[in-house]
Amino acid sequence: MNAEIRPIRTPAEQALIAELGGLPAGTDRLADLRRAAARSFEENGLPHRRVEEWKYTDLRTLMREATPVAGTAAVAEADARARLLREVEARRIVVANGAVVPELSDLAGLEEGLTVTTLAAAIASGDEVLSRVGGILPGRYDAALALNTALARDGVVLTVAPGVTIERPIHVAHVFAGDAAAASYARSLVVVGAGAKLTYVESFEGPEAVAYQANAATEFVVGDEAHLDVVRLQEDGASAFHLATLLFDVGREAQVHAFTFGLGAGVARTSLYATLSGESSQVGFNGASLLKGRQHADSTLFVDHQVPGCESRELFKTVLDDSARGVFQGKIVVRQAAQKTDGRMMSRALVLGEDAEMDNKPELEIFADDVQCGHGATCGDIDEELLFYLRARGIPLKEAQSLLVQAFVGEAVETVEHEGLREALVERAEAWLKARG
Amino acid sequence: MAMLEIDNLHAKIDGEHGKEILKGLSLKVNPGEVHAIMGPNGSGKSTLSYILAGKEDYEVTDGSVTLDGEDLLEMEIDERAAKGVFLAFQYPVEVPGVATMTFLRSALNAQRKKRGEEEISTPDFLRLVKDKAGHLGISQDMLKRGVNVGFSGGEKKRAEILQMAILEPKLCILDETDSGLDIDALKIVSEGVNALRSPDRAMIVITHYQRLLNHIVPDFVHVMHKGRIVRSGGKELALELEANGYAEYQQDAA
Ligand SMILES: Nc1ncnc2c1ncn2[C@@H]1O[C@H](COP(=O)(O)OP(=O)(O)OP(=O)(O)O)[C@@H](O)[C@H]1O
Ligand SMILES: [Mg+2]
């Protein structure tokens, strides 16, 4: 069969494999994980459009070059570039070019029950928390995650002790600093103990004109009856390549809500994997993308209901201007044991640009018989009747469009519980609309 | 010169085989006047109001419309609003996610800006809305919702009049504002409209029922039929139509 013949390795693949050859030796579990990830990358390479999960985001074609791993960022530049969400009261940790910058991070005076360390420090000291890194598996080969596992040297490792509520959100501000194309890899782990509560924020940004690559993966281990809110704001530079993986393992009666907001990067792929492994949990994975120019953004979700009685909700909104391209792929799997599952997934796209395009692929795979599941996808222009109504009251065209786009995105942004964060995201959406002119 | 001069207006549905709806309609409206337009379903009343407001689904094939001597048909939709054209819709749409207060304020400020006036301050705006809403029996709860979202038919009509009261247009076009209103609401809305009557404001009131015209007494009544005004008279014409219907005009046209 033709399909079994490995295509010739692209220059990017060759460069990455060379990079992987330089992995440090080691006998610890993490070193094993890295080697395994490197091997799987060597075998499978970058996915192309004939790989179902990457059908609309042909990484092999899009990622023409693999840039070298980024060096240490200058502290002053990292500080100057990390602007996002500064107004939100939070414990801020800056990760520049994939490494935590202690000088810019607020790691003192941690609340009782909160531990924050860096992956690099945990590796150096052989911290036992490392045994949890790489614990959540996506259940399929994922090139972005494999590269991250193999190449990430640092990131944030955070645990909240059982029963502890951390009021102040943790904000991990990822930033790229430098003016040469390079790749950053950051790997983070968030463990929320049973009955604990946490709001975790990630932001991404960097220079507009540098073709850097940001590969970030975060694992969230959510204990029984824990509450976790995740907010993710991606505003990488217009020439950047953003590859993100979010992995969740959700315990019994836990409540998890994540909101991913994507406005930046030339090409962005955000993969979210959630394993619902404890009964009666409630999860909401929502998001919005605002795209313009020739941006390409892909949100791919995989929600795995393994046990009975869980509820999952997904609402994704995409606004496409100019000749932007949006992709939503969402899959809800309901295993045979997962009776009484309630799963609903919806993707809605609003097309403003004449040459914009949206690919929607929501899917259900159900092996249990007593479930309530649904999915849907819509894609449409701005409603002319509504636009006329606003304009007939004197509101100019662009402003009327902005109001309607804000309303469209607002439905998803409103799911963010934290008021300060919600307002900050609304403000980012407004800024995007203003920049449209 | 009249405020509004419609001369021999012909319009069709936009598109290659769009049918002609307005077939040579002429009308002059002076400041201070209230004109009622009555006519059978489908005669083109709403079409006329949409064309005045600037809806893009129609193509004007002949004739002209001027507002204070300026070519209305050349103006953008929002420009017409800023010049004082206001259409109270027959079927106001719901705009989920756009808060009523944001909408009212955006509209008012956009119009002011276009006219070179200053934006309204927050306290002045809140006071203005509270005052006007109170008179029209519109609750604070309704104002907190999205524009018209979840409003009953009658509430939507009231909300249209609230917008009109806040925006203080020069030319008010009311398209079947009475339909869907209960007896009390009809009174409240009519009072709201009458409060806006003034020597420099004109109104075109489209209705099927004489009842509304007992409250909003018109200076002129016009009968529209098949895209034309086929008869004009004083307020007694409405009574005559109420008694006899449109049979006479249907025959004329046949
Ligand atoms: N966008 C459109 N596409 C197709 N036909 C249209 C459109 N708008 C109006 N029409 C047609 O034009 C004619 C006039 O419609 P219009 O709504 O103006 O009538 P009207 O006098 O307001 O009627 P009513 O008293 O029922 O409100 C009708 O036959 C209607 O079906
Ligand atoms: Mg009508």
From TrEMBL, chain A:
> What range(s) does the SUF system FeS cluster assembly SufBD core domain occupy?
180-408
Species of the source: Ancylobacter moscoviensis
What does the similarity note say?
Belongs to the iron-sulfur cluster assembly SufBD family.
| Annotated InterPro entries | Fe-S_cluster_assembly_SufBD (IPR055346), SUF_FeS_clus_asmbl_SufBD_core (IPR000825), SUF_FeS_clus_asmbl_SufBD_sf (IPR037284), SUF_FeS_clus_asmbl_SufD (IPR011542), SufBD_N (IPR045595)
* Underlying gene: sufD
Describe the location of the SUF system FeS cluster assembly SufBD N-terminal domain by residue ranges. 29-172
Annotated protein name in UniProt: Fe-S cluster assembly protein SufD
From TrEMBL, chain B:
- ABC transporter domain: residues covered: 4-251
Q: Which PANTHER family match?
A: ABC TRANSPORTER I FAMILY MEMBER 6, CHLOROPLASTIC (PTHR43204:SF1)
State the protein's name: Putative ATP-dependent transporter SufC
Report the GO molecular function annotations. ATP binding; ATP hydrolysis activity
Organism annotation: Starkeya nomas
Which Pfam families would you find in this protein's record?
A: ABC_tran
Q: Which Gene3D superfamilies match?
A: P-loop containing nucleotide triphosphate hydrolases
Q: Which domain of life is it from?
A: Bacteria
InterPro entries tied to this protein? AAA+_ATPase, ABC_transporter-like_ATP-bd, ABC_transporter-like_CS, FeS-cluster_ATPase_SufC, P-loop_NTPase
Describe the family membership recorded for this protein in Swiss-Prot or TrEMBL: Belongs to the ABC transporter superfamily. Ycf16 family.
